[in-house]
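task queued by scheduler; priority normal; single chain, no ligands, no partner chains; default sampling; output format set to structure tokens
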Amino acid sequence: MTSPRHPNSPRRAPSISFPAGDDAACRGDGSAATARLGVVVGSTRPGRRGPGVADWLLDVGSAHLRSSWPGFSLAILDVARFELPLLDEPTPAALGSYTHVHTRRWAAAIGACDGFVFVTPEYNRSLPGALKNAIDYLFAEWHDKAAGLVGYGASGGVRALEHLRQVLAEVKVADVRTAVTLSLADDLSDGGVAARPHQCEQARRMLDEVASWTRALEPLRSP
């Protein structure tokens, strides 16, 4: 069981090398990485649980990656801190012609990742609009990268995860089978995440799958 932490606490791990100027929005586990997995926090509302869930994953996942996948690291990308408005680019993302500073900043952060873990609540049987909006902003930056999924909600966020899988397929993100689901009633509180042993094991298994697929997809990402 992980020690509880307030979900909106400003815990900051040592910064790693993300694009210049993004230290406030990206933070990692401090390791020297050859493969970076971005933990995308998809909820933006006040009082959200996402940052606490992401911190829990950083704790569990970083230790596992250090022992089982040397060279891999986790870094949190909080959608809220990138301050993306509703999609306002005048041309489709598939053209890669980004005109706004906020888009280029988001594109640089996503482009710097080799794979992802998406942390999302379930809102009305789907993912948050802010997460869908953030995905829609970009195209090529997502391509040929693996992703794991962590959901939370009254039913563990499972319906949000199933919808998210469909969205990710369209931008050529390969989502792995194993996902982590956390119950609002049983696993989350105002103090943070109190995960049960099987959920910690699911997180480690999911990261194994993401890491192995990240390596397998590497030739497709090479210029």
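post-processing summary
- Residues 197-221 form the longest helix (25 residues).
- The chain has one domain: 26-85+93-218.
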